[in-house]
Amino acid sequence: MVVFPCAKINLGLNIVGTRADGYHDIETVFYPIPLTDALEIKHMDEEFPSDVNCDLKITGNAVDCDEADNLVVKAYKLLAADYDLPRIHAHLYKRIPSQAGLGGGSSDAAFMIRLLDERFRLNLGIAVMERYAARLGADCAFFVTAAPAFATGIGDQLEPADDERGNLEGYYIAIVKPDVAVSTRDAYKNVKVEKPEISCREIVRRPIDTWRDALRNDFEDNVFKIYPLLGDIKERLYQLGAVYAQMSGSGSALFGIFRDLPTELDQQFPYCFTFTSKL
């Protein structure tokens, strides 16, 4: 069986509080986009000489991926601790770039849970799958349904963001990800912790033309100071006609929302990963 784990973007991201456990409380709208990996599992023959029960192979856009420690394997082990799962071969083909703020690893893990549930008829249900996924990462639970969601807490508390497609149906998205890796420490350095006057969920429900001055990613100020290239890419997306542009998560991917399909993006942003699609 094959599934296609999708990426996400953040429509706004506000750091609204600090926690005793060292994490921060956030508010953001997770929005799925049609940039996907591919994940396949097959039964492992009883005579196949493997020392592991989940034999993972990673190909595609995979740089320095540790197959044995990948979240896909961790998802298998998490369920195998509670359910009698057979040994499997897993193949993960990566298209979603890593260290981009697009949630690729989290999506792979959640889709592995979904795949195991369906393939081996575990009948877990969405709520149970979300609880398992949340144990693997703060944003993993979102990908169990991959429906637009307003996320609070550390990103693990999910509520409906709007209707099924929200304001973006019929628009186009462009993703630009340069060869820059933003550390979580750098992203949070000197970040301002403050609850906004208007929630990002409320802003996203308004016409997209109003987003530019109202919908903020609180990480951008710090990250753009450290990596000016990212700020330059955002401004360039606006120059190319984006109705709204923002850094996703803590970076380093930038996205632009367009009314018409942007063309020749790879020429506009050489040496960057680029992706365009209709939403």
Helix-strand blueprint:
Blueprint (H helix, E strand, L loop, with lengths): L1 E2 L2 E13 L5 E13 L1 E6 L10 E7 L10 H10 L7 E7 L9 H16 L6 H9 L7 H4 L3 E4 L4 E4 L11 E6 L6 H5 L11 H5 L15 H7 L1 H12 L4 E4 L6 E5 L6 H4 L4 E6 L1
Helix pairs in contact: 1-2, 2-3, 7-8
Overview of the molecule:
By secondary structure, the chain is α+β, with helices and mostly antiparallel strands. Helices cover 26% and strands 28% of the residues. It contains nine helices and twelve strands. It has helices at 71-80, 104-119, 126-134, 142-145, 184-188, 200-204, 220-226, 228-239, 265-268; strands spanning 2-3, 6-18, 24-36, 38-43, 54-60, 88-94, 149-152, 157-160, 172-177, 244-247, 254-258, 273-278. The strands form three sheets. Strands 1-4-6-5 form a four-stranded mixed sheet, covered by helices on one side. A hairpin with a 6-residue loop joins strand 10 and strand 11. Helix 1 (71-80) packs parallel to helix 2 and helix 2 (104-119) packs across helix 3. The radius of gyration is 19 Å and the shape is globular. The two termini are 26 Å apart. The model has no long low-confidence stretch (mean pLDDT 92).
